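tool=predict chain=A
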Amino acid sequence: MSDVLSRLQKLVIASGNSGKVAEFRDYFNHLDITLIPKPDDIDVEETGLTFIANAHLKASQVAIATNEWAIADDSGLEIDALDGAPGVLSARYAETDQARIDRVLQELGDTPHRQSRYVCAIAIASPDGEIFADAIGTCEGAIALKPVGTGGFGYDPIFFVTELQQTFGEVSLEVKAKISHRAKALLLLQSKLKNLLPLFT
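tool=predict ok
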């Protein structure tokens, strides 16, 4: 991955979410590459029915709008007992993170069936909007009975990771970066990015 991305001087992150931007920067901090959040005046409507469709849409449209290489992700929470909800509507399930958490906990009630997963789809597009690589990563867990921890963002305080015996709200960014859905998607992207190498040689 470093061989490929070292030839990219700049990547526009197709997100205005400060938490996502921070995670991307942490992942790429060892590379000589500038990661830039998308301009505020670029707003891509997420009309895709799947995470990967939305990642493609955002990467392509932001790349075209900025005339730069762009990287985008679409991610969210799938809860088995809610038939996969909130899914692609995770960020729009309510107006604030706290309201979204409250809605999930209310809808689940006291059911013991709380299996869930974070899903992340990532795509990279060239300045003409062509998608060159994509990947999907997941992180399995369960929904806690109440929020624990104040770290992370989104649903992190109620997403309990069995292997850690903690919620994402309790762990450090360094730990989360190793096992999160986004980290796994980025790792899967590595081999696919080798296809970009000829473009920068």
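The first strand starts at residue 10 and ends at 13. Strands lie at 10-13, 34-37, 70-79, 115-125, 131-143, 159-161, 166-167.
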